[in-house]
Amino acid sequence: MKGVAFAGKKGGTGKTALSHALALGAAWQGAPAYFMHTDDREPLHVNGRPYAYYDARNPKTLETLSSTALNNDGLFIIDSGGNRPEFDRWITKAMDLVIIPFMPDPEVVKTNLDHMKRLEEEGACNVRALINAYPSNRIEREYVKQFLADIPEEKIIGYVAKTEAVRTLRMDDDPTFKTPVTRVNNLSRKLYFTVKDAVEMVATKEGASQEAA
Ligand SMILES: Nc1ncnc2c1ncn2[C@@H]1O[C@H](COP(=O)(O)OP(=O)(O)O)[C@@H](O)[C@H]1O
Ligand SMILES: [Mg+2]
Fold first, then answer.
1. What kind and span of H or E run contains 75?
2. Cα(89)–Cα(106) distance, integer angstroms
3. pLDDT digits (tens, 9 = 90+) for 133-179
């Protein structure tokens, strides 16, 4: 099992939405997915989703779940609250990849780049950026590019299209989960492949630097 955490101090960048989307994308590809809710907020009441959803706000629960899950196939996904340095240190060690979602917004970019830098100064080598809510319109894209220009190219693992319907993934299922609309399914599947590739890249890089050492 591979471990992936969505992190970043800034709220509202899509950590929760993308954690669900990734779990869904994995499930649609037949890979088991385990969603870890670690935010202070109350967990959702989820019904009938094709992936497992755990209340892992207690660090002990999270650690137990992660050590158990490592022996299984699939993806272990942490939706991180983002403002706990000790937790950050744990996820950078325990997870294969830490993803910081960036919304095209100057303040988000600045805060998240600072966070990324801090994690790397503390020894993390598996932190990557994912551009979220990327406009599909060409003119709008040109406009947001100026906000994203400070993010080092080699750190960006991919782009997630701006898709309002992803909000449905962050809502309680009342009474049960309905199949998401096609754009959400497509986004989820694409995100799964983006993350899968990034996990493999990081592993290859780590392997290579270990050999060189
Ligand atoms: N790709 C996207 N396109 C459009 N809206 C998005 C996208 N990703 C997230 N959002 C919206 O942005 C808001 C914040 O997302 P959320 O996942 O709650 O962020 P976080 O967990 O980082 O606080 C929500 O309203 C969510 O629906
Ligand atoms: Mg959240």
1. strand 75-79
2. 26
3. 999 999 999 999 999 999 999 999 999 999 999 999 999 987 888 88
Task: Compute the distance from residue 199 Cα to the ligand 2 centre, in Å.
Answer: 22
Q: Which of 107, 170, 185, 187 to mutate to test the pocket of ligand 1 (most atoms within 8 A of CB)?
A: 170
8 Å CB contact between 127 and 116: yes
Q: Which atom of ligand 1 sits closest to the CA of residue 162? A: 3
Task: Give residue 125's identity as a one-letter amino acid code.
Answer: C
Is pLDDT above 90 for 5?
A: yes
pTM for the full predicted model:
0.96
Q: Which domains are present in the chain?
A: 2-212 (3.40.50.300)
Give the CA diameter of the chain.
55
Q: For 95-139, how does the pLDDT look when each residue is reduced to its tens digit (9 = 90+)?
A: 999 999 999 999 999 999 999 999 999 989 899 999 999 999 999
Ligand 1 pocket test, pick from 6, 9, 10, 13 with the greatest ligand atom count within 8 Å of Cβ, gives 13
Nearest CA to ligand 1 atom 9: 14
